[in-house]
Each structure stands twice: as C-alpha cells, then as structure tokens.
C-alpha cells in the first residue's frame, strides 16, 4: 500500500507524508523487503519541495524495513496557496520479491487550498 497524505496546520501551513506498508489480501501487515521513496509538497505554479529520500531493505544495502508502516515527511510550507502532496521515484519490493514502481513512479493527492 502506498499513500501520499496531505496535512494542514491552521490555515497557512501544510506538509506531506509518504506512507508505505505491505499487507496480505486479508489486510494483515507483512514486512516489505525493500522501499525507496521521497515525499514532496507542491504549491500550484511552483516547483515541489522534497524531503529526504527514505530507504530500507537489504536489497539496497540498508537495514530491514520491519513489520510496520514506513512514514517519511516533506518540509513544511506556509502561505496562501493551493497545495498537493507528491512522492517521486517510489520503489517497493513486496514480500513475494515483486518490484512495484520504479524511477519515475509518483503518487499525488488532489489539490487543497490554504485559506488565509
């Protein structure tokens, strides 16, 4: 499961969360074998601002992802604007070794408006 979440604090501050986890068809949490992801927050008409890239999994030379929801956050942005959450280059190695996503794969939320 890969989700891009958009959060607003008050009326002028927003940030994005990238949330990834693996599960069975019945909804039980499973450990992803590898994850590479990077969350971003975008103001309409301006370049997106991205947080640090998150990586886990032995396939990419890192520690195991663990049996959990992997979350990573973008920087906060402020001001009156329309914003959306975005992730880029997301790659997930599922428990059955299947690679979901790749460089160029992104997920976005709908646009929300910060009111001032």
Q: Quickly give the structural class.
A: mainly beta
Rg is: 15 Å
**Regarding CATH, which class?**
Mainly Beta
Total number of domains: 1
Net shape = elongated
Mean pLDDT: 89
Sheet having the most strands: 5 strands, antiparallel
CATH architecture: Sandwich
Q: List low-confidence stretches.
A: none
In whole angstroms, how far apart are the ends?
Answer: 34 Å
Portion of residues in beta strands equals: over 45%
User: What is the fold named in CATH at topology level?
Assistant: Immunoglobulin-like
Number of helices: 0
Could you explain the architecture of this structure?
The chain is an all-beta fold and 116 residues long. The chain has one domain (2-113): Immunoglobulin-like (Sandwich). It contains no helices and 15 strands. The chain has strands spanning 2-9, 13-20, 22-23, 29-30, 34-37, 39-43, 49-50, 54-56, 70-73, 77-78, 82-87, 91-93, 99-101, 107-108, 112-113. The strands form 4 sheets. Strands 6, 7, 11, 14 and 15 form a 5-stranded antiparallel sheet that branches. A hairpin with a 3-residue loop joins β1 (2-9) and β2 (13-20). The protein is elongated, with a radius of gyration of 15 Å.
Features:
116 residues; 48% strand; mainly beta; five-stranded antiparallel β-sheet; elongated; Immunoglobulin-like; four-stranded antiparallel β-sheet
Short précis:
This protein is mostly beta strands and 116 residues long. It has strands spanning 2-9, 13-20, 22-23, 29-30, 34-37, 39-43, 49-50, 54-56, 70-73, 77-78, 82-87, 91-93, 99-101, 107-108, 112-113.
């Amino acid at each position: 499961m890969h989700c891009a979440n958009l959060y607003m604090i008050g009326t002028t501050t927003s940030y994005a969360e990238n949330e990834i986890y693996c599960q069975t068809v019945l909804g039980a949490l499973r450990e992803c074998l590898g994850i590479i992801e990077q969350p971003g927050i975008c103001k309409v008409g301006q370049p997106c601002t991205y947080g640090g890239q998150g990586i886990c999994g032995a396939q990419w030379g890192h520690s195991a992802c663990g049996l959990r929801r992997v979350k990573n956050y973008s920087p906060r942005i402020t001001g009156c604007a329309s914003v959306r959450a975005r992730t880029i280059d997301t790659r997930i190695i599922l428990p059955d070794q299947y690679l979901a996503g790749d460089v160029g794969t992104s997920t976005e939320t709908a646009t929300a408006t910060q009111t001032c």
